[in-house]
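--- STAGE predict ---
source: upstream dedup step, 1 unique chain passed
mode: sequence only
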Amino acid sequence: MDPNEAVQDAIETLTPQGVDLSGIVTCVPGEDTVKDNQVIQSLARIGQLNSRTDRIDDDKDLDELIGLLDKLTHDLCSVEGSGNAAIAT
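--- STAGE serialize ---
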């Protein structure tokens, strides 16, 4: 079973059981849908900034980090029905 089939199978199995999938990323890493997802992009960039310990005191990086967190909590994850709301809570 390829990754896309596995995701689809999991969705089809869990949805009738009443499992809330709203906080679950339901796309396969490496697929175009991941690259297009702004939540995933923001989280990846936060991870990159977090791994750069040599520049932790850089105000530019801190400002970017704050901007990304604001974008996640206010712009991307607060839109009702987007499927991203559960990620921020």
